[in-house]
Amino acid sequence: MTAELVRGQNHPLPEVRLEVRISAGKPIVAGATLSDEQGRVRGVEWVAHPGAPTLPGLEVSKQAAADHRLAFDLDALPEDVHRVSVLLALPTGVGGPVQFGAVAAPFVAVTGLDGLEVASYTLTGLDTESAVVALELYRRQGAWKVRAVGQGYAGGLAELLTDQGLPEARQLAGSINEAVARGLARSVAAPPPRTPDGDRSRQAAASAPGPDQPYAGSGPGTAAGAVPPQQTPYPPGPGSATASQTGLPGGPAQSDPSSVTQPPSPTSGGTINYSHPGRQTAAPPPPPPTAPPAQPGQPAQPVAGDATGWSMEERLYNQVWGMFEDLARTVAAYRSAVDFADSRMEKELDQVLSDPRSRIGGQGDAAREAARAKHAQLVDQARAALDRDLAQLTAEAEVVEPALPMAYARWDNPVWHGYRAPMEIPMAVRLGDLRLPETENLSIPMLVRLPLERGLWIDGGRTSLEGTLADSDQLRRLAVDTAVAHAARLLAVYPAGEFSVHVIDPAGTGASSLAPLTRSGALAGPPAAGAAGVADVLSRLTQRVDLVQMAMRGGAADSLPPGFDTAEQLLIVNDFPHGFDDRAVTQLRYLADEGPAVGVHLMMVADREDAAAYGPLLDPLWRSLLRITPVPDDHLADPWVGHAWTYEPSLVPANSQVLQQVLAQVAEARRSWNR
């Protein structure tokens, strides 16, 4: 279980490869210092900060953000490093708060690569301080521990670094602030919040040439999330205290928190208007439906859409989010009750065995039997409570599932048979379903907010669940099928002309799976093959990212080339790294990091082992993508209690023609829009 630390408390670290996740509510700077056995920082080369984010065994965020994810490999640190201090500071000169007393208390969590929290610490009691040492990871007798520090400095980073014995403290603090300012200047402003009229189009002040399309945006964003093998499946919903693309039914899951977009600097120019000229808005809907009154002694009958929201779509999204939270809490309560019953029985049995008079004979047997009976009673009570809650959630799911709109619905939902191209971008899209071992018959839709805040990695390698498909060729084929299903869904839920899909298939191994996309004409062009095709597609998309970034920073919307395609772009990469040279790998990493902010998204179909030759070079790439699998796998974690959720992809039923029918409608809508 997670250790909730207080100031000065320490806790052992069970592993050396871990992450430190930070949530602050406002953009803050995150960094780390290395110190030797005497606690001295030997120089600026022992400080990781946005201007120098990478040290051996350590990687921090490249800019100020409300949420950060710092990566550590303690075994890779220099041998003379005995302490790592995690620093937080408020950026200066950007118009934000200047003391921690004016922001929500920062929350810091240490997690393993599986996403499970090891220890957490809330930095309370800060007032005039503008910089703080949050945590220390330190070596003691050959093992690593974490200590909650919470030491604040009113003098900011300069005072903090001086206190750590760094002679160049003021110069380094100045360079850190400059790096943060440059990062904020490069960032893209987040879209305005949804207005009561229900219009969710992302709009900005200036106009762009050609048909205006939404380029990107930022929804609430979590599960999340980052992410090593175990990731946060949903981004935070209403009332959530943590971020996730991780994104849950919405998504910590989020893009790498270190790249969360920030407001533009006061000197930046106008922005580009990507709104669709034909998009329609609607008046606020009537109040949500309410459940009929329950009979005495009976639970209330569930009703689809009884959550809060301005539209039925938003109410259903919030209801799915609430169902996920309820399921997480009720299973956590059951597991906690079983753990208590186990520990109580163990304690009572230890007491029996500790008394020589009761070890043997009838008295000992009676005591052991009584302990086991109490254990069984407690477990039965916990299971009865769990079954009661699961029955209520199952009844709600049976009502909600048929009422879900197209973007949230399974492929076997009849809503797809009446498909027509939508006029608005939906709040979220369904990527699959989530369930827990105790709830085999109940699953919750996994909804990820749109536009995507991070790319997707469909892992064609082996899964961790027993009994799943083991043949590597079949897994790779299923991985491409999963990518096609997700790409088709994204094409279907966007208005015509507002979403384009490109495919890189260097050796043509995915041709049969990609056939529905190629035959329908829904792709922007034929799949790129060979090294030349890889280079061409990557060059065009990186150039697009550069152009839009320059236009956004300089307020030069009119300088975009005539006929520039402002639609969001999705790049599907199959068989990585086949056909990729070092330059192509660098461009791919650039698209994964910078693309989502300007509407270029990445979907990787790959087995990480195939790219093992690149070593740690590609670690940031894998962490920046939300890992999903073509078969069920228990690799997603929620941000509250760390449940390992089993993810099951949303695939088209066997022998169904719904995918071909939907893609044909998408292609026809694209042709009509281009006339």
Overview of the molecule:
There is one protein chain. With 675 residues, this protein is α+β, with helices and mostly antiparallel strands. It contains 10 helices and 21 strands. Strands 1, 2, 3, 4, 5, 6, 7, 8, 9, 10, 11 and 12 form a 12-stranded mixed sheet that branches. Strands 16-17-18-15-19 form a 5-stranded parallel sheet, sandwiched between helices. Strand 5 (54-55) and strand 6 (58-59) form a beta hairpin. The protein is globular. Mean pLDDT is 80; it is low at 185-285.
For this entry, give a set of tags.
single chain, 675 residues, alpha+beta, 12-stranded mixed beta sheet, 5-stranded parallel beta sheet, 30% helix
Topology:
Blueprint: E1 3-5, E2 10-12, E3 17-35, E4 47-48, E5 54-55, E6 58-59, E7 65-73, E8 83-89, E9 107-112, E10 117-122, E11 131-140, E12 143-153, H1 156-163, H2 169-186, H3 312-354, H4 362-403, E13 428-435, E14 444-449, E15 455-459, H5 472-493, E16 499-504, H6 511-520, H7 530-554, E17 568-574, H8 582-594, E18 600-606, H9 619-624, E19 625-628, E20 633-637, E21 644-649, H10 658-674
Parallel strand pairs: 1-10, 15-18, 15-19, 16-17, 17-18
Antiparallel strand pairs: 2-12, 3-4, 3-7, 3-8, 3-9, 5-6, 6-7, 8-11, 9-10, 11-12, 13-14, 13-21, 20-21
Helix pairs in contact: 1-2, 3-4, 5-6, 5-10, 7-8
